[in-house]
Amino acid sequence: MPVLIDGDNLLHAARAANPPGPLVGRSILCDTIGRWARRRAERVRVIFDGPEPNPSLAKQTGHAGIDVSYSGGQSADAVLIGILETDSAARRLLVVSSDHEIAHAAKRRRARPIRSDEFWALVQHDLARPPPGPSEPREKRHGQTPEATDKWLREFGLEDSQQTTTEG
After folding, report:
1. Adjacency order of strands within the sheet including 44-48
2. What CA–CA distance (Å, rounded) separates 33 from 56?
3. Range name among 9-18, 23-32, 33-42, 71-80 with the lowest pLDDT average
4. Which end of the chain is more exposed for a tag (fewer CB within 10 A), N or C?
């Protein structure tokens, strides 16, 4: 499910959730969301208020897996509502904001709104869990053990025929 985030709104929720810890800034926020997006294989778009920062500062908030943009001369809320109103598949979106106007716009378009504090807690919970292990059995990646190979050769009666071809 693609995720559309009110960046400054989520930033405030992240700071409120971590008062004694280091101050969460845009760079840390985007890095955290990027790690979550990569783990969940989600497409994420974060909209921050204001003009785009200079290129070196913009690089700090850029992260693989998320698209970070700025609202320019309008509010991020207006940009988010505009995206919701024009997206042809808005019902697939998860919309992250504690702003009531954005939540109502999301509901009107059948998107799924979630408050910023709830989303931040979800992200923290997901990242605290160990990453999922490989879904394939070890043998598929590393091959059978010699003992298992011998067992299957005996099971199918191939052990003797293989010895004769290598000996003959």
Report:
1. 66-70, 44-48, 3-6, 94-96, 112-114
2. 20
3. 23-32
4. C
Helix axes 26-40, 7-17, angle to 10 degrees: 100
Position 150 confidence tier, pLDDT thresholds 50, 70, 90: confident
Give the containing element (helix H, strand E) for 118. helix 116-128
- For 44, the token pair is 């994420």
Q: What is the CATH number of domain 3-128?
A: 3.40.50.1010
CA pair distance 44, 16, nearest whole angstrom:
22
Is residue 113 within 8 A of residue 22, CB to CB? The reply is: no
- In the chain, domain spans: 3-128, 139-167
Task: Please give the backbone phi and psi of residue 56, each rounded to the nearest 5 degrees, phi first.
Answer: -70, -35
Contact 68, 30 (CB under 8 A): yes
d(CA 146, CA 158): 15
d(CA 87, CA 43) in angstroms, rounded, equals 15
The string of pLDDT tens digits covering residues 111-149 is: 999 999 999 999 999 999 887 766 676 667 677 788 888
* Nearest of 32, 26, 15 to residue 59 by alpha carbon: 26
